[in-house]
Amino acid sequence: MLIDAHHHLVIDKEICPYFEQYAEKIEEIAEKYNIDYLCIMGLGNEFSHFGGNNAVLKLADRCSKILPIAYVNLDSDTPEQISVFVDQGFRAFKCINPKLPYNSDVYIPLYEAIAKTGKYIHFHTGLQGSAGGHVDSSNVRPVLLDRICHLFPEMPVIMAHLGGMAWINEGLAMLNYHDNLFCDLTGGPASLDSKWYKSYACRSELNWDKVVFGTDSMIGDFGEPFDCYKEKIEFFNLSETDQDQVWGMRIAKLLML
């Protein structure tokens, strides 16, 4: 099974000229790589190049390989909105670019509502430079997920980008500390030389039991992050069973497929 757990919909035609044929492009690339599903996440209005929740739902109607993930605006959505997202067919939740740190008291009711659904939250971690308006990357550090994981130990949490290049060691440490915390290696962590993960600079061993595959790319660029994961999996000499978990079985369980 192959599932891309981290995918966004680019709606800017200059960046993604095949936007209007995105569903057809998915089918084309899916046949080449034997992709079962793509978890496509909506984003907020501050991300002008990317589609929001409604655009993701519309695309999901056109392509059975899409599992829609709802963007939750931590600063404006209410706990009641979580039930609406579930009724609309969203399979999990995405959080990014909050005005306050992820672990702030004001966000706890939203996390509580999500925990009750049994679905997971995919948190952006690391530097974020693509959003317009308010941006404060210190609000999305990996360590801020510590309180959330403690408060809701039954709620799966995915740490996108393993903390990013700014806080990758912080992310690695966090990954080994919470049973309900997982990560993808999208962005800098995927492009790092595999030897780095065995070097002195890497202060905590990468726990492959917590890793899910993701690309954080347009479907036409699927091959590059796929190859980065493949190279690392081969470098670490993962068993076939462990490889299956990384490529799709682990996220399939979190998605309750």
Description of the structure:
This protein has 257 residues and is an alpha/beta fold. It has a single domain (3-254), classed as Alpha-Beta Barrel (TIM Barrel), CATH 3.20.20.140. Helices cover 35% and strands 14% of the residues. The protein has an eight-stranded parallel sheet. Strand 1, helix 1 and strand 2 (37-41) form a beta-alpha-beta unit. Helix 3 runs parallel beside helix 4 (108-117). The radius of gyration is 17 Å and the shape is globular. The chain starts with a strand and ends with a helix. The model has no long low-confidence stretch (mean pLDDT 96).
Keywords:
single chain, 257 residues, alpha/beta, TIM Barrel, 8-stranded parallel β-sheet, globular
CATH architecture: Alpha-Beta Barrel
**Count of β-strands:** 8
User: Main sheet: which strands, in order across?
Assistant: 1-2-3-4-5-6-7-8
Mean pLDDT: 96
**Main pleated-sheet profile:** 8 strands, parallel
Q: Considering DSSP H and I runs of 4 or more, what fraction of the residues is helical? A: 25-40%
Query: At the first level of CATH, what is the class?
Result: Alpha Beta
Work out the helix count: 9
User: What Rg is obtained from the alpha carbons, in whole angstroms?
Assistant: 17 Å
Number of domains: 1
User: What are the low-pLDDT stretches, counting only 5+ consecutive residues below 50?
Assistant: none
**For the terminal residues, how far apart are their CA atoms?**
12 Å
> Could you give the order of the helices and strands?
EHEHEHEHEHEHEHEHH
What general outline do the C-alpha atoms trace? globular
